[in-house]
Amino acid sequence: QSVLTQAPSASGTPGQRVTISCSGSSSNIGDYYVYWYQQVPGTAPKLLIHRNNQRPSGVPDRISASKSGTSASLVISGLRSEDEADYYCAAWDDSLNGAVFGGGTRLTVL
Amino acid sequence: EVQLVESGGGLVKPGGSLRLSCAASGFSFSSYSMTWVRQAPGKGLEWVASIFSSGQYIFYANSVKGRFTISRDNAKKSLFLQMNSLRAEDTALYYCAREGGYYEAPDYWGQGTQVTVSS
Asked: A52 and chain B: CB distance < 8 Å anywhere?
């Protein structure tokens, strides 16, 4: 049971826009920055978004994110086949004194 | 370029010990908090332990508290995880990661080192 809640799966067709949500509480998302990662099976997680909505260099601008209260969302526009992967949200949690992760959302490009 | 390279994983019997290492390069290691995150086969990401830049604060997940010890050597730009009293449920790929800032989630990750606990 993950501290942050994500839907286990999402899907879309090429070119579509997909939203992946992440729900937490006041001890994590409510008070701390949200991070998002993409993980292709067999590889290490790759940072997509840091500090709620900041894209590192190299991440395309069709990837965006937002945070509101104790929830956050990742939006992938112009869906491409290479977006097929697992996506995780994360934040610090001050009741656990550590980072907490969502259970991951597997994105399938149909 | 930030690089994190883990080593030290392997096959160990229940109750045994392992020491993981992580060699960092491409950034000012002594300025960042560092963390270990693990991923059991087919499962999600689980935070294990974090250590602040000078080692002044250390935090552990309840699942490893009292068995694992995180440490760092800033002069050698290295992070460590001493794992004792290993259990089957500790079997996972262990990632070394740099935290984005104090009380933040990780930003850069290594490729991971496999730990398998089995008799």
From this structure: no
